[in-house]
């Protein structure tokens, strides 16, 4: 395939020891119905056969660029790939995932039709809009000129996990041109060697990075003078990233819970976040509201255990009552809503 004069989308793929899946990922990009695309493969110092595979594809396809860098992490790889991008829009794709053939066509069309700087991609990630606080990489279809307007907002180097959350949170704060595309299908592969699985096995390593997250956010909110205008956006980030994803999903012991509890509370108090916004009007959850008022992590955990029991009972009652709905379609719709509402 010849590289056209105008490139609609640049797909940037960071690669590290992913020989098992990289061909399938590249093939899914080459199979896109949108022809005016380029693929930028960034090898982050792999020591398996990933380099050979990538070089073979780059030699066979003129719209594939292959870059090699010494191991510097996924953020460095993505940022270096972006420096070479020429497309009107960019999409950062993981090397172990795939996209359906019409993915880029539909994302590009939605972006063009709406004039969006950010298209939130995928049914799993559009529900929070317009209160989206952070997004995974696979849910961000981005206008390149928009990114070029903010050269200081990039994937933070040396940060993982949450490098994608920190990027998206800051980008979402500097534009109102955001739209959603729930129909786009990105196929996220789950396997034991995934970065987030290996990282989350070392809870302290993740927790010790969180002060750096807060430093990045503080510098950003200071630079753009957003403490008053976007403090609610920041509050939602606190709920999404350190609370929902880390407090609940990491295997934390009591010491680690106390450490994370204090980190969040200290950051909130330092910047008087609750005092600057009407949290009652925000779609933050009851557990997070109590978390911010709790004296310590044990008090919160006691509350949350009681809260879960009450929700489980209510969920069971509502699912039982759904049997009384005579129309099958409406009954399924109601049950789906209940399961989503009471999943935590």
TrEMBL record:
Family matches, as CDD domains: Glyco_tranf_GTA_type
One Pfam match: Glycos_transf_2
Assigned keywords, A-Z: Glycosyltransferase, Transferase
MF GO annotations: hexosyltransferase activity
Protein name per Swiss-Prot or TrEMBL: Glycosyltransferase involved in cell wall bisynthesis
Protein source organism: Sphingobacterium psychroaquaticum
């Amino acid at each position: 395939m010849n590289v056209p004069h105008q490139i609609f989308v640049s797909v940037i793929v960071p690669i590290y020891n992913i020989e098992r899946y990289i061909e399938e990922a590249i093939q899914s990009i080459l199979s896109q119905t949108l022809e005016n695309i380029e693929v930028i493969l960034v090898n982050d110092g792999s020591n398996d056969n990933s380099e050979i595979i990538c070089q073979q594809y780059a030699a066979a396809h003129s719209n594939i660029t292959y870059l090699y860098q010494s191991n510097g992490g996924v953020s460095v790889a993505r940022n270096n790939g972006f420096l070479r991008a020429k497309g009107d829009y960019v999409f950062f794709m993981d090397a172990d995932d795939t996209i359906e053939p019409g993915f880029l066509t539909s994302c590009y069309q939605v972006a063009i039709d709406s004039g969006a700087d950010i298209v939130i991609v995928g049914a799993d990630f559009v529900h929070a809009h317009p209160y989206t606080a952070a997004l995974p990489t696979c849910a961000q279809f981005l206008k390149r000129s928009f990114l070029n307007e903010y050269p200081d907002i990039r994937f933070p180097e040396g940060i993982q996990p949450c490098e994608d959350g920190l990027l998206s949170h800051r980008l979402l704060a500097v534009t109102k041109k955001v739209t959603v595309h729930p129909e786009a299908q990105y196929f996220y592969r789950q396997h034991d060697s995934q970065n987030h699985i290996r990282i989350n096995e070392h809870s302290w390593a993740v927790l010790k990075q969180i002060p750096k997250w807060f430093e990045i956010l503080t510098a950003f909110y200071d630079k753009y003078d957003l403490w008053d205008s976007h403090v609610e956006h920041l509050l939602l980030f606190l709920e999404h990233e350190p609370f929902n994803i880390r407090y609940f999903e990491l295997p934390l012991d009591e010491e680690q819970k106390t450490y994370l509890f204090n980190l969040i509370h200290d950051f909130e108090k330092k910047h008087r976040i609750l005092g600057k916004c009407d949290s009652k009007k925000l779609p933050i959850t009851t557990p997070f509201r109590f978390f911010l008022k709790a004296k310590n992590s044990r008090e919160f955990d006691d509350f949350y255990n009681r809260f879960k029991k009450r929700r489980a009972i209510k969920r069971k009652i509502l699912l039982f009552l759904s049997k009384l709905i005579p129309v099958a379609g409406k009954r399924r719709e109601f049950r789906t809503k209940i399961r989503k509402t009471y999943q935590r």
